[in-house]
Write a structure and sequence with these properties.
With 293 residues, the protein is an all-alpha fold. It has 15 helices and no strands. Helix 7 runs antiparallel to helix 8.
């Protein structure tokens, strides 16, 4: 088969795939690969056709051969991702998850400089979730931290629904991971989630409970968590739930809020709180000045 004939067969395979004539498309793919076993497009088309026909092992083999033939092309990596996230509905084996991790890493390397925000988010969260499936919690945390930094996240946005869900999944399997090392990621994602105006009180409570449970064994991080939570609750953007009031009691006990400050805090008397903070600052200034005289 000449080069021209191979091109004609590839074009015919593509047309058959578009018409969902997968058996016919497979014949064209096999004709191409018989003449050129390393033909990248032929292997990618074959991988897609095998996946549509439910022949997942053959699909995986075709895609893996395509990656070997041309590792600097993204189509085969995307094909592997589609195979294991869209076509194959049963639980993946460890080996299949390893292939999926490699595919995510490969396509991220090739496309991250040009991919739009939505695609970047999809790829990184997919990688994090796959790493979770393999019990690799710290790598999952690192991946989620990287995408947060890459997207320059400063406030809650709908896109962080996916990041938050992946963080919760990672926390769930992070028995031996250094959770304290990822405190900012966990706290920030939880607070972003709670700030969403569409969240129910029980959803906010669940997010805060998940966050607090992460750090109970680490007093330093737990105190930091409480202080950041206090700043968050001071914003007054939403009605305090019963759980949040319980957390405020912990904040009072562990950060030394005095009774009047706490009273203003929990009853949302923010103007009184601001005047009280001004009074404390003025009193501190007078004491500091008198000590210098």
């Amino acid at each position: 088969m000449s080069t021209k004939a191979i091109k004609v067969s590839l074009k015919a395979a593509k047309a058959a795939i578009q018409q969902k004539e997968f058996d016919e498309a497979l014949l064209h793919c096999k004709a191409v690969l018989k003449e050129d076993s390393g033909n990248y497009n032929g292997l990618v088309f074959a991988g897609l056709v095998y996946a549509e026909l439910g022949q997942f092992e053959n699909s995986s083999t075709a895609y893996q051969d395509a990656v070997k033939a041309s590792p600097d092309q993204p189509l085969a990596y995307q094909g592997i991702i589609n195979l294991y996230t869209k076509h194959k509905k049963v639980k993946l084996s460890a080996g299949e998850n390893d292939q999926l991790v490699s595919a995510y890493e490969g396509i991220i390397t090739l496309t991250e400089s040009s991919a739009n925000e939505a695609k970047t988010l999809e790829l990184y969260v997919g990688l994090a979730n796959t790493l979770c499936s393999l019990g690799r919690a710290e790598e999952s945390f690192n991946t989620l931290q990287k995408v947060c930094n890459k997207l320059n996240a400063e406030q809650f946005d709908v896109k962080f629904e996916a990041i938050y869900a992946a963080v919760v999944t990672t926390v769930g399997i992070a028995q031996d991971a250094n959770i304290a090392g990822f405190a900012d990621l966990i706290i920030n994602c939880s607070i972003w989630f709670c700030k969403s105006p569409t969240k129910l009180d029980k959803e906010r409570d669940s997010a805060l409970l998940t966050m607090m449970k992460c750090f109970q064994k680490d007093s330093t991080t737990y105190d930091k968590c409480l202080k950041l939570l206090a700043q968050f609750l001071l914003s007054g953007d939403f009605t305090l739930t019963s759980l949040m009031k319980d957390l405020l009691i912990q904040i009072k006990l562990q950060t030394g809020l005095d009774d009047y400050f706490f009273f203003c805090f929990i009853h949302k008397r923010y103007y009184q709180l601001l005047f009280y903070q001004y009074y404390l600052s003025f009193r501190f200034f007078k004491l500091s000045r008198s000590s210098l005289l």
